[in-house]
């Protein structure tokens, strides 16, 4: 039981970064913009957050630095694809490549740096309960913040006028423009917020999840977060559940190794990515279902007055 509690706790921890990045990318895509640069955004944010935490000793300032770096890079991406009408796929891939190289350059001096002792969080009373205490109530506050952010996003999208406008821009920007809404500015705001969320996820990985800096440490989590939006059919609650599913698959390899299960390490290491491919294949097998849930203008440029 203790082992299962630790596995559940590790699943929540591992899924948090995917959930935060996933809801950020969902905001982008609900506005009609697809950003394939999530991996690069998260890498730059990871080194920004780690370096800030090293120099200030505050993980929260590190999170702020990660969000700021993600927002700045996302704003540049937004200006290119929304105002200059560059290809969204090509620009996103370029951002991902840039983020990988730029973060490696910035992180050279931080490879050997270590963060101070991590504060152990404990929810009073609930953290002392058997099994569910260590499994659910001894997590970093960011784990609970990710759940709150998911709930807030669902409320925003489906219960507010601003959320309705955002979804309208993603479905039919021409109609939204005809009604007088500033489509390009709304899309840019969505891209910047989404970039900030990816930045928060990247800094969480380097500051809390694996408190160190190593080149390429995001290791494909940005791509998994992108897959989550399709897996979740662009719904916030499903993004959260999918993040925990992939987080559980990631942690399962360590659980099996710790229990002496004799499976090649290489096979266990590829489980998260294999599960991502399998899920996407299953979802894509029903093209009509995907088309019915996907924002109609996703990936399509918008020219005011055209």
UniProtKB/TrEMBL annotation:
Record's superkingdom?
Answer: Bacteria
By its UniProt entry, which InterPro entries does this protein fall under? ABC_transp_permease (IPR001851)
Pfam families from the xrefs?
BPD_transp_2 (PF02653)
Q: How does it sit in the membrane?
A: Multi-pass membrane protein
What are the UniProt keywords, alphabetically? Cell membrane, Membrane, Transmembrane, Transmembrane helix
The residues that cross the membrane are: 6-27, 34-54, 60-84, 91-111, 141-158, 188-206, 212-232, 239-258, 270-290
Q: Where in the cell is it found?
A: Cell membrane
UniProt KW S-adenosyl-L-methionine keyword: no
Its recorded name reads: ABC transporter permease
The organism's lineage is: Bacteria, Pseudomonadati, Pseudomonadota, Betaproteobacteria, Burkholderiales
């Amino acid at each position: 039981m203790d082992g299962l509690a630790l596995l559940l706790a590790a699943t929540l921890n591992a899924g948090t970064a995917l959930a935060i990045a996933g809801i950020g990318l969902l905001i982008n895509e609900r506005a009609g913009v697809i950003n394939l640069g999530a991996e690069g955004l998260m890498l730059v944010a990871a080194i920004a957050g780690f370096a800030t935490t090293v120099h200030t000793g505050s993980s929260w300032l590190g999170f702020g630095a990660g969000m700021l770096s993600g927002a700045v890079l996302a704003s540049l991406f937004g200006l290119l694809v929304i105002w200059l009408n560059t290809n969204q796929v090509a620009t996103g891939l370029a951002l991902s490549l840039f983020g990988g190289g730029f973060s490696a350059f910035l992180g050279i001096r931080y490879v050997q740096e270590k963060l101070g002792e991590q504060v152990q969080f404990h929810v009073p009373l609930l953290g002392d309960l058997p099994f569910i205490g260590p499994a659910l109530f001894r997590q970093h506050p960011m784990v609970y913040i990710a759940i709150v952010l998911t709930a807030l996003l669902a409320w925003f999208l489906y219960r507010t006028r601003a959320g309705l406008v955002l979804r309208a821009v993603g479905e039919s920007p021409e109609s939204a423009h005809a009604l007088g809404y500033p489509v390009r500015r709304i899309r840019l705001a969505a891209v910047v917020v989404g970039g900030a969320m990816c930045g928060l996820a990247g800094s969480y990985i380097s500051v809390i999840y694996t408190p160190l800096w190593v080149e390429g440490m995001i290791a494909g989590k940005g791509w998994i977060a992108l897959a989550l939006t399709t897996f979740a059919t662009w719904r916030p609650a499903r993004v959260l559940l999918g993040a925990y599913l992939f987080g559980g698959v990631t942690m399962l390899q360590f659980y099996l190794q710790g229990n002496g299960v004799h499976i090649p390490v290489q096979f266990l290491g590829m489980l998260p990515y294999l599960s991502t491919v399998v899920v996407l294949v299953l979802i894509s097998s029903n093209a009509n279902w995907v088309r019915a849930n996907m924002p109609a203008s996703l990936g399509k440029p918008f020219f005011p007055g055209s």
